[in-house]
Design a protein that fits this description.
The complex is a heterodimer of chains A (257) and B (73). Chain A has 257 residues and is an all-alpha fold. Chain A contains 8 helices and 2 strands; from the N terminus they run ααααββαααα. Chain A has one domain. The longest helix of chain A is centred in the last third of the chain and has 38 residues. Classes of the chains: A mainly alpha (257), B mainly alpha (73).
Chain lengths: 257, 73
């Protein structure tokens, strides 16, 4: 397996693991309050729908000329990856609250308990819809990454395999512990995925315009190292700004007393 | 019908572009500039790299300012 392929599998794995943890919170809350049958059918249908999206769009994307594909896919991956990276930096720099799976789980639990029951054809459609929506919306980001990354790297099945392994792993752990996976370092994983997507996005979009990177494929490691250093530097700056801001606020509060 | 179309487009806008459209706009501008330079035979691979760092830092700066004004309000 080449370095590029290994990065492809790792990125798909991490992205899928993060999104699976988030979807699991919804499915778990709905399953416990409304019953497992409808919830699991909803989650399963969403997973099949996502697999269908990948299976339908993958071959179509593979038909595009590689330069055009790399410009389009590279740009989309870059914009998408910067979104993940931006949020992860803001969270690490304390300017955005961390996602708390336990709090979200309790909120979903309360919502599912409060909603009325409509059983038709032996299915609780509220549970089905909520589980379907939770899995489909979270999974759409993974499907996008698998399609974009897989097509440009020339192996959608390998990207799908990375994503699939993460999904199986998260479901297996959830089946054992029966609670939201709040100990998973979601922000660190999102930080890494954001860096990977942005790195490949920059590399492919620039290559697609007809330019050549110094050192060819080795430039990927250079871009990744550069982006990692810049991002960690930005986190350090944000933390310092936040602490200074908190200190000023504390001083103002003590002077007002 | 128009409302469904609007919601569909808004969903994809939010999905791809997200919270800060300026990052996406900066990336597209850098891509256009890179393509133009490549046509003139210049290998300016660094344009995208510099743009990404500047746009990311600027976006974070805007967010911290928003956060400061929210907390002082």
């Amino acid at each position: 397996m080449t370095t590029g392929m290994a990065i492809l599998v790792l990125t798909a794995f991490l992205a899928s693991a993060v999104e699976a943890v988030e979807a699991l919170t919804v499915v778990l809350a709905v399953g416990i309050t409304r019953g497992w049958r409808s919830s699991l059918i909803g989650a399963g249908t969403a997973t099949l729908a996502l697999a269908g999206v990948i299976a339908a769009l993958g071959p179509a994307l593979s038909l595009m000329p590689i330069d055009i594909l790399r410009v389009i896919v590279g740009t989309l991956l870059l914009v998408f990856g910067l979104q993940w990276l931006r949020k992860a930096i803001l969270r690490a720099g304390r300017y955005k609250a961390f996602r708390d799976e336990v709090v979200l789980y309790r909120a979903e639990l309360a919502k599912a308990q409060a909603a009325g029951t409509t059983i038709r054809a032996g299915m609780d459609w509220y549970a089905f819809t909520l589980a379907f929506k939770g899995v489909f919306l979270e999974g759409l980001e993974v499907a996008f990454i698998v399609l974009a990354f897989g097509t440009s790297q020339g192996s959608i099945p390998l990207a799908a395999l990375g994503a699939g392994i993460a999904l199986v792993l998260v479901v297996a752990v959830a089946a054992l512990v029966h609670q939201p996976l709040s100990r998973v370092p979601e922000n660190t994983m999102k930080f890494v995925v954001g860096l990977m997507l942005a790195t490949f996005g920059i590399f492919w979009s620039v290559e697609g315009t007809g330019m050549a990177w110094p050192g060819a494929d080795v430039a990927l490691l250079g871009i990744l190292a550069f982006l990692t250093l810049v991002s960690l530097g930005l986190v350090a700056v944000l933390r310092r700004m936040y602490e200074r801001q908190a200190l000023i606020a504390a001083n103002a509060a003590s002077m007002g007393e | 019908m128009m409302m469904y179309l609007k919601n569909f487009l808004l969903f994809w806008y939010d999905f791809i572009v997200g919270d800060d459209w300026m990052i996406a706009a900066g990336v597209v501008m850098a891509l256009v500039l890179s393509a133009a330079l490549a046509r003139r035979g210049l290998n300016a691979w660094w344009v995208m790299l510099v743009t990404v760092v500047v746009m990311l830092a600027a976006s974070l700066w805007r967010e911290t300012r928003r956060s400061r004004s929210r907390s002082s309000a």
